[in-house]
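#struct-pred
JK: can someone run the complex with nicotinamide-adenine-dinucleotide? inputs below
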Amino acid sequence: MAKLIDGKAIAKALRASVTEQATRLSEAGVVPGLAVILVGDDPASEIYVRNKERAASKAGVNAQTIRYDAETAEETLLAKIAELNADTSVDAILVQSPVPGHIDEHKIQEAISPAKDVDGFHPENIGRLYANREGYYPIANTPRGIMTMLAHEGVKLAGKNVVIIGRSILVGRPMFALAQAADATVSLLHRYTPDNLRHELLQQADVVIVATGVAGLVTGADLKAGATVIDVGINRMADGSLVGDVDFASAEPVAGLITPVPGGVGPMTIATLLQTTAELAALHHGVTLEAGWQTI
Ligand code: NAD
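RT: done, structure tokens with the ligand placed:
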């Protein structure tokens, strides 16, 4: 029987640490500012943005959501981003994905100042991560949250065999860079990886991180006994329930540590977003924060 990794509890502790940091910042006259741009009325995005706003205000982060209708021109968004880049009360900017098809998402990501790129999607920040540069720069919040979770559980990646499934810029690719920087041997699998090769690689994996959006892709029969299994997937089933990319019922008896869905990686993402916002605010205003949760 695997030990469950309680993402909810770890995220709660991380949010408490961000709240402390926000208090320290406010003593220095700084309120961390997060600007969220939402284009269109995608119901899932509405929920994500509302959750981000709520968590931010509880942690002492000043979040503002700027809403645009789905027909908004790209130039309007670019002008808004330029304005936010210049606004010293805004430390962190994100554009909620997905944006409508007539908007070039890459152009939008590149318009955000790398110093305010709280999602870590700007090519400059991705380049720093891949080059394993020292110093502070924002890193995508989901993989960073996973690193925090692993550290919290005492899972060390150095020398381990890590298999990541899914190569999105949101999760898999930055996860690959982080695990490699932590001295793991890392395989990055994707939709063109043959099933038998995936199975073979998984059989040897000490740590498995799955982010595909394919419900039940990894089963207990794929896993090495005692493996640490991090399930990033969120899939809504016909009956309304949420499941991950790992078949929990068969994987849990084989794994050593496993994240549930929901209540695993999900809560870590927003908590890490707030953590990054507070760190950017500290950086912009020359305030030194005590290292507490800064695991990477
Ligand atoms: P994406 O669609 O951008 O990428 C999916 C990746 O999975 C691709 O690289 C693709 O090659 C790979 N893939 C697809 N089918 C595969 C298969 N059969 N075998 C192996 N690889 C396969 O997705 P994403 O944005 O990275 O999200 C992945 C999942 O993680 C989704 O369910 C999403 O909802 C979830 N997610 C959760 C969080 C969180 O905070 N918990 C954050 C981001 C994404």
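RT: quick notes.
The first helix runs from residue 7 to 27.
Residues 141-265 form a domain with the Rossmann fold fold (CATH 3.40.50.720).
JK: thanks, will look after standup
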